[in-house]
């Protein structure tokens, strides 16, 4: 109990020890233009404020260094950041070829800079062609990449560039729930995705309290009132330059006709911008009494201008993202932001043949006030990002892994498939589902069937027989020869007789059940039965991390906590088949009550049921949901909600998960001191959430002789089914069991 209380005091020490006692994370932030700096600056201020954890290097390139675009590197210097390197990477021409040449020039210049800096991680923002050059250089030079604002959807070439950077990046900070889901759908590792919100919102949500009238007068004139002017910001669409220039021309015509004071910002450096500037000059915008044309407005002042404008018009992402924080009306023109999530303040004009459509939109929107929108952030993005940076383990392999969805293999016509594949029929009896699969000798799941597990013994046994008969028939069609049936089930099992002695409370009417006889009689095949924890250990021994390891332990972290012990290559069952009930190791004399009737078991702290119990308590006290979370009224509170809340910064949820991980770690320490394995494998849905906590507890609590034990997360997609298959397949290769 004293140990648990001291956990919070150890937090800062743990972070430093993770990457070496005195190692600070060296972070390179590269900024290319005024827009990305507005998102990166809050992060840079946060990094600079914690010198005990970070070293900051700033690299400036792109349009920051071009006079026609305002020499915006000066605002970085005004923010008191030391610029380590300035790279002139823009090839002038403002056409498609110039963009390609600019990427190439950046790729030529960046390696020398990165070789000198040797950052641990590079932070790259967004979807610009400059950012693609940065990400490509860092990836090829084995530098970890943190990508800001990945997973979003918009129009033009930006989508392709953004998603390309996502595939190069090792870590992702996204702004919305939809963006997070897009990243997961793109096969990115969920554990390396942070839903933080947009960093610029940390500034935006406090911006309206500042003095703004002096800023408005400075940029628009002394006689201008709030809500009585327009901010216009329009960029070329690189995939349809001709049409975007035409729309810009119509926009200026509509603004001239609308006859309101308007601040027009010059477009960005993309292909087509030169033609847009020509249109502005042709129409005399720079000398028109109603217009103020500027190359750049500092972000702090720009916030005030859009916050108090009567309307913003154009196709900048700022209009559909940041401006929603103030409820300022926005007219989004064309396809450049198609797919972006927007608040109700945004009116879309997808296409315009004449100025009339744009003029009508101005008449509808100008001067309105909409509710403020927080789709893109709640003002707490930077603390979340800094915490995420501190959690990065530089000892982890640099090579990123993709989480591909299962794909059905086609049976090709080669000799290996023409001949029958020796296989097992695997059965997994869980608390919720009953699953049957055909598993090949190589551990490939050829076919899988899933049904809800019936509540009564008779219905359950009948369904097992029906599914096994169906799977055995299908095996013929897929050229598989079934060698036997392996059954994985919860509870205590006598594997010699194939009898379930008694089960957990999750599976009702499942005590003193002979599974071997009826299934063997029906299918005329040999049948093996064992506990699900033991099966998981067998799966690791045959197909996973335990292959070739003499002594190891597997821990299942799921609805309950179970496991299996392999000693001298053989599974330990114990004198009464009760060995490896690892979930019922007691780690606290007066801890929470366990389903077994005892108190303080690992399972009472770290199982899915235990986490669900704690989540319900928080929910009942209105302490579970934080910004970025939502629950339907009929939705059942689960452990997943607790984990989600912790990821979003809920300190109480974090504390519960930390305690659960510590309890599991103490249990593992007891196992190490008892059977002294050389490897501990964490399996199940909660394994990734606990592995670091377990390692930390071992490092602090275990005897020095066992501290070097390897603790890994299982890489098996379905250990229960693979373990059940191993019962059969080990027999066919004459392994002693």
TrEMBL record:
Could you name the active-site residues?
532
From the record, give the transmembrane residue ranges: none
Alphabetically ordered keywords of this record: Allosteric enzyme, ATP-binding, Cytoplasm, Hydrolase, Kinase, Metal-binding, Multifunctional enzyme, Nucleotide-binding, Phosphoprotein, Transferase, Zinc
UniProt cross-references to InterPro entries, sorted A to Z: ATPase_NBD (IPR043129), ROK (IPR000600), UDP-GlcNAc_Epase (IPR020004), UDP_GlcNAc_Epimerase_2_dom (IPR003331)
What pathway does the annotation place this protein in? Amino-sugar metabolism; N-acetylneuraminate biosynthesis
Annotated EC: 2.7.1.60, 3.2.1.183
What is the name listed in the Swiss-Prot or TrEMBL entry for this protein? Bifunctional UDP-N-acetylglucosamine 2-epimerase/N-acetylmannosamine kinase
Identify the species of origin: Daphoenositta chrysoptera
